[in-house]
Write a structure and sequence with these properties.
Blueprint: E1 4-6, E2 20-24, H1 28-33, E3 40-41, H2 47-50, E4 59-63, H3 68-78, E5 83-87, H4 90-97
């Protein structure tokens, strides 16, 4: 595996860091309802269209609803030399464990 797995209890340590780029893989309507602070919305279904626009030199952390799509995206994008991680359990796990952070 060429990417890191981040437990939802450890994810707050990555928020608001300049060297981290959060990618919300959910649909725009889901992102509009709630998302992690500073996250960018790049829907998984359009991965081929946006993967080349990801920033180099930053850790890219993918997340989705429950964690499945983020694993697939991390696996694919890591092959192109990006520093990639996937948030285990997705945004739901993050919000359950970190209710005070939005």
């Amino acid at each position: 595996m060429d990417f890191e797995l981040i437990k939802c209890k450890d994810a707050p340590a990555y928020l608001y860091r300049r060297d981290v780029f959060f990618v919300d893989l959910r649909e725009p309507w889901q992102y509009a309802q709630y998302h992690l602070a500073g996250a960018y919305n790049f829907p998984y279904e359009h991965l081929q269209e946006w993967e080349h626009r990801l920033p180099r030199g930053k850790k890219i952390i993918f997340y989705c609803e429950h964690g499945n799509l983020s694993l697939m995206a991390a696996k694919r994008v890591s092959r192109h030399g990006y520093q990639v991680a996937a948030l285990l359990g997705g945004v739901h796990c993050f919000l359950e464990r970190n209710a005070n952070i939005r």
